[in-house]
Amino acid sequence: MIVYTKISRFSQCATVFFILLYAGCGMGGKPNRVSPEMKPVYNYLTAANARIAGQSRAEFESDLTFLDAKGNRISLLGSAADAPSWALLDPAQDKTEGTSTERLYREYQLKAPEQPVVVAVIDGGVDVNHEDLKDLIWTNERERDGTPGVDNDGNGYVDDVNGWNFLGNVNGKNVTTTSLEVARELSRLLKKEASEGLSESERIYLERVRKDYRDRSDGYRAGYEKVHARYLELDTALEVLRKEGLKEESASAVSAIESDNPVVLEAKELALKYLKEGVTTAKLKKSMEWFRGPLDTYFNLDLNPSAIIGDDPERMDELGYGNPDVKTETAAHGTHVSGIIGALRENGIGMNGQANYIRIMAIRAVPDGDERDKDVANGVRYAVDNGARIINMSFGKGYSPNQDYVEAAMRYAEAKGVLLVHAAGNDGQDIDVAPHFPVKPASAGHWIEVGASSEKKGDYLAASFSNYGQKTVDLFAPGEDIYSAIPGNGYMPMSGTSMAAPEVAGVAALILSQFPFLSASELRGLLMETVTLYPNLQVIRPGTDTTAPFAALSVSGGIVNALSAYQRALKRYGGQ
Asked: pLDDT at position 3, please?
């Protein structure tokens, strides 16, 4: 802590400090000796190198992996952009705990259905122009071909060509970042306490919410400090090397620097530890922005998104609020999810999605922050009413003040035969005990709750961050280091149950495309009974240091398997 404090103070004017030092005494002097003036820099660099040298690989990766508001893991480490996704590989043939999807495509002649399967993605938006997605975006033809500014299909939503944005207003202004539900709930309780008082049970609840609010805000600020510290390390090392002639921030350029000066050697060692892993100051700056920007909104007790949207926040069943802009500044998560479900296969670019023969319906209801119950419920109803067969929901939160309205929408989807796929969350918790909203309605035969698994069979087959539950989580799917699309024709790895849920939604869509007569409950049952099982495998229970049978972490006890599901359907229903 003392070292960090000194370095933080020193780094506030790092550039000026270096210029003065170098101009005053230079980096010369006797070989292999450090001048007194450069001793603080040398000590800082050696301490950073020693810290990294003392880490395990897992600790190093954790140090360069950061969480968004939903707990999704975003890694700054480089990845092999041209490598096939491990998530689609086969446990038997590839020794990788994937979904066996690529093997299914290799071994069977799949055919295009009469109609593609419409998968609604309720998320933060989708880049509908992405090179790997643009040809599979759902299109409302009556709105596309109709009169602009008119509700041509009479569904209550004007110009909804590719879906709907419940987080904007009629003038095209959108909510991008908003508060977390814990902040909204704390604000509500404090206002009630001031105006009319609280009952004893409400006071107890208030204290729980207040503690949760404090813990969440402190944790997020700690995340910012962590990435800031990593940025200072790399930037300091590069500043030393620039004085030695470094012209570009790359591993090859740093490797070419030659010197016997101890400060330079330490700087070179430290810079290479980052750059060889694909970590740059630009990436670290971007991560700092991810943390710093939302801090003023996530925990803002006075934020009111309805001031922008123009809706009545107390009227749950309000129709038509929002706008048709489904691609906004917060579309990275939804674009990544959509790519996992169905990025164009074998087109020579990007990556392969799970399913051919689909259309992605983009529904924007999840801002950077926590989604409102109203928008989730109305997004589900919009998807159902406009032809979605499957709805992916890669979001969740710890509070749901209007849970009844959300559950009514889920029941509506069940009545209409729509399969709901929901991410279990990233808190490393047993959600049999700690609910993760929206929760599965009791005895719901149209809902799949998904935990995240990792690449290799072993202690950490259940991803360390994943929620689990022998009664509430239905199955697991690949959710760690999943490579997929991001806006602007880009690609990057992300981790989280947000990535695992679309793996399942994609498998479900693939099976449904070949057996379109399946009901939501039949499709769910098929996926549940054909999971890859791991009898007797003990794993680290997520969020703990203790072990548990992998089979005890979910209802099915296994990982979704596209090949097995297809083979079972083929045996049960015959060739279609």
From this structure: 30
The C-alpha atoms of residue 164 and residue 384 are separated, in whole angstroms, by 13
Contacts of 240 (CB under 8 A, 6+ apart): 18, 27, 41, 45, 263, 264, 267
* Model pTM score: 0.85
Are residues 473 and 423 part of one domain?
A: yes
Can you tell me the mean pLDDT for 441-447?
Answer: 85
Q: Which helix (H) or strand (E) holds 241?
A: helix 200-242
- The pLDDT of residue 77 is 75
Q: How far apart are CA 399 and CA 557, in angstroms?
A: 27
The residue type found at 41 is V
Do 447 and 559 fall within a single domain? yes
**CA dist., res. 428 & res. 23, Å (int):** 52
Residue 67's DSSP bridge partners are 73
From the list 98, 103, 121, the residue with the least C-alpha distance to 478 is 98
12 pLDDT above the threshold of 50: no
- 140 found inside a domain: yes
Helix locations, 12-54, DSSP H: 14-25, 39-53
C-alpha to C-alpha distance for 421 and 512, rounded to whole angstroms:
14
CA distance 352 to 36: 56
pLDDT level of residue 441 (50, 70, 90 thresholds): confident
Residue 381 is assigned to a structural domain of this protein: yes
Range of weakest confidence among 66-70, 297-301, 527-531: 66-70
Question: What are the two backbone dihedrals, phi and then psi, of residue 195, each rounded to the nearest 5 degrees?
Answer: -90, -40
The verdict on 286 and 363 lying in the same domain is no
Pair (230, 357) in one structural domain = no
**Domain around 386:** 87-178+311-573
Band (291; pLDDT cuts 50, 70, 90):
confident
Nearest alpha carbon to residue 276 among 257, 249, 245, 246: 249
Chain centroid to CA 118: 22
In a domain, 204, yes or no: no
